[in-house]
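hiii so um. not sure if this is the right channel but i have a protein structure encoded as tokens and i wanna go backwards to a sequence. like what aa goes where. can anyone help
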């Protein structure tokens, strides 16, 4: 066999890019399913409906979906349900925004500087070991039982996942990029803008998803503390009067908050990280 024929054989045996792509798809999770994000909640709703119709789920255990819808309409028409929804949304948005900004800024200071890490990372890890909800009595003593305490609690509980995941994203960037930037004499500002921040973006968005869930947890708890408005206030009153259907309405609203917020973050993640080649893509 001549050298030319041998070269042709080797080239023919090498996998093409299309072959690698097909193999990757075969080993991956499979093709995308339309509206996949809604299938799980729809299945839960179907189980709830069927269980209520068949009597498998007793009304004393969980109110039937149609009774919840009826109660929602009554709360909307005869009570200030819209005001309660707005008050809860305002608290979680303010707290989540403050916690996200603080967590991201601290992660940058700690992830990009050894001195910053020495000063910041230790206290953050100590705070991580202390549940934020256990600090609420102290916050009540410091800030009272008004809106300030509630927003600060939500901000603090959502700050930790932002910091942890963004910091890990910053420290996980391949050091060869820094070596290449030094070789090409790229300035620190350009390096941070075009390499470091895009490299930390996946970690930040993952932390944001956890932060949304944490913020909802904080909202549920702080609204039990002498709130005059909000979904938690509505549920507290319903508990005192034994109105199970109103409590379920509040739980459904909390669930919708978290579900839609997570869906929004996932949409942003899919658009912002469209350049990544992962098993999902």
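sure thing!! here u go:
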């Amino acid at each position: 066999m001549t050298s030319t024929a041998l070269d042709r054989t080797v080239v023919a045996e090498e996998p093409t890019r299309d072959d690698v792509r097909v193999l990757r798809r075969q080993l991956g999770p499979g093709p995308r399913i339309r509206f996949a994000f809604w299938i799980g909640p729809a299945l839960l709703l179907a189980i709830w409906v069927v269980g209520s119709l068949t009597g498998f789920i007793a009304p004393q255990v969980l109110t039937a979906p149609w009774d919840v819808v009826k109660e929602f309409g009554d709360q909307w028409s005869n009570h200030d349900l819209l005001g309660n929804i707005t008050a809860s949304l305002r608290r979680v948005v303010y707290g989540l925004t403050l916690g996200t900004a603080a967590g991201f800024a601290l992660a940058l200071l700690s992830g990009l500087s050894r001195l910053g890490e020495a000063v910041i990372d230790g206290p953050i890890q100590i705070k991580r070991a202390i549940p934020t909800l256990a600090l609420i009595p102290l916050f009540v003593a410091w800030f009272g039982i008004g809106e300030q305490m509630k927003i600060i609690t939500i901000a603090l509980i959502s700050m930790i996942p932002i910091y942890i995941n963004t910091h890990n994203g910053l420290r996980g960037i391949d050091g060869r990029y820094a070596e290449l930037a030094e070789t090409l004499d790229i300035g620190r500002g350009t390096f941070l803008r075009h390499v470091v921040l895009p490299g930390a973006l996946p970690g930040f968005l993952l932390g944001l998803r956890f932060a949304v869930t944490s913020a909802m947890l904080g909202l549920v708890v702080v609204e039990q503390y002498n709130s005059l408005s909000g979904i938690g206030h509505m549920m507290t009153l319903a508990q005192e009067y034994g109105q199970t259907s109103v409590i379920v309405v509040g739980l459904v609203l909390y669930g919708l908050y978290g579900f839609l917020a997570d869906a929004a973050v996932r949409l942003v993640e899919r658009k912002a990280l469209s350049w990544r080649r992962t098993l999902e893509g």
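oh and The chain has a mean pLDDT of 79.
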